[in-house]
Each structure stands twice: as structure tokens, then as C-alpha cells.
Amino acid sequence: MSRDARWDALLELVGKNGRVEVDDAAATLDVSAATIRRDLDQLAEQQLLTRTRGGAVAHGVAYELALRYKAGRRAPEKQAIGRAVSDLVAVGEVVGLTGGTTVTEVARALAVRPDIVGEAGAAAGQPTLTVVTNALNIAGELAMRPQIKMVVTGGVARPQSYELTGPLAVGVMNEITLDTAVLGVNAIDIERGAYVHHEGEASVNRLLAERAQRVVVAADSSKIGKRAFARVCDLGLVDVLVTDSGITPEARVRFIEAGVDVIAV
Description:
The chain is an alpha/beta fold. It has twelve helices and 15 strands. The strands form four sheets. A seven-stranded parallel beta sheet has the order 6-5-4-9-12-14-15, sandwiched between helices. It has a three-stranded antiparallel beta sheet with strand order 1-3-2. A hairpin with a 6-residue loop joins strand 7 and strand 8. The longest helix has 15 residues, at 3-17.
């Protein structure tokens, strides 16, 4: 098993159980205890977990993995969600995209749509889509597409998510309007609404939602019914939830009853 695969597995264990023991992890991953100790030390240096005697625990209450370690989790579901959300966007719209791995897949799907970046888009002679984002990785992927007008908020970058937060980001958001806002979330619940782990991201994401005519939440089914630290918005602001087929029939009915259209892919 490669180092990156071990690190991903260890972070999965910590995220699921809140802690991991060296001996248990060594047995699970079929490697030596010395290897696990070295891996945990290196992950602790990156502040992805907190080292303890005999193992490690989640780094803080609002635990989250860095974006590059989350990218491989539920990848097929996220890619399908990304394509489905992309299909909801019309040529010529102004679209707001938050950060996160699922919304990154939305951006990638938009970037290969023939009517946006193909010959038809090039023939238009002007941008076929305007994208506003506070996510540096998304901006980097879309900036090379001349048919997409790329607008990036200001702010301070968070290394876990590549998202820009703070007063500079808020200042830009207060000056624009959007046709569609696509929100990535860490949790969404009928009673509590949409949440993320970080309060700065929640603030910018909330503004994106408030400035949009339509709000789409892109979240795989593992986020449904979960809890996170900072509230983005309640369900009254959400028009569409795009998720995967893992959503339970009961949850789907409850979202629909709350006025949210549900698309499960």
C-alpha cells in the first residue's frame, strides 16, 4: 500500500471513529506499527490530526480533511452529482460556486459542456457563462477556458479547502447578483438546514445563496442527516438538492415536503 493510500485510510478511520490506535491501524492496513507511527507523526505535522500516546485523535471538534485527501472519497457519486448540477445551468447564466470536492466536480462538468466551451461557445464571441467563486482550485481549473468569465472573490485562503474567506470576500459578494448558487456542504438536515465546518466559509456561502435567484445544494448522501459546526442557511433558501441514490426514501420525501426539489443520481 502506498503512503498516500495509507494516509487516506488513516484519515478515514479518524474521521469515522474520532481516534485511531497504532496497533489496530497496523492490523487493519497490514503494515508495521512503526510505519503507522511515522504516518501519524507526519499527518500531525500537517495538523490533520492530533497525536496521542499510542495513536491519534481528530484535530478539533469541527473535524475536516484537507481537500486533496477528500477528493477520492465517494468519487463516482460526486462526479455524477457534478454532471447533474451542470445540466441545471443554462448558457449565459451567472453561477456562484463554493469550494469543496463535489462542487469542484460541478466546475469540471461545466468546463467540458460543448455548448459552453465547444465550437458553439467559441463562435459566440463572448463569455457563455460567468462563474463567481471563492475557491482557488476551481478558479484555476476554469480560468483557462476563454468562454467562461471567471470572477474570484478576495479573501484569505484556507489551506484545508482552498476557499477565500473574510471581509474581502464578503465585500465582493455584496456587490453582485447571481442566477444560480451551487453550495457544497458538510451536512444537510431537514430541521437544521445546510452546514459546513468553518464559520468563515459559512458566511461567504450564505451570501452566495442570498444573492442568487436559485440555490442548488450539491451533496452526496453521506452528508444527509449529519451535523457540522457552522450554519449556511435553512432549507427555506434551498431550491434543489442534488445527491446520489443513497438517499433514503424517507429523507427524500421529507425534503420534498419541505419544498426542496430532490434529484438523485
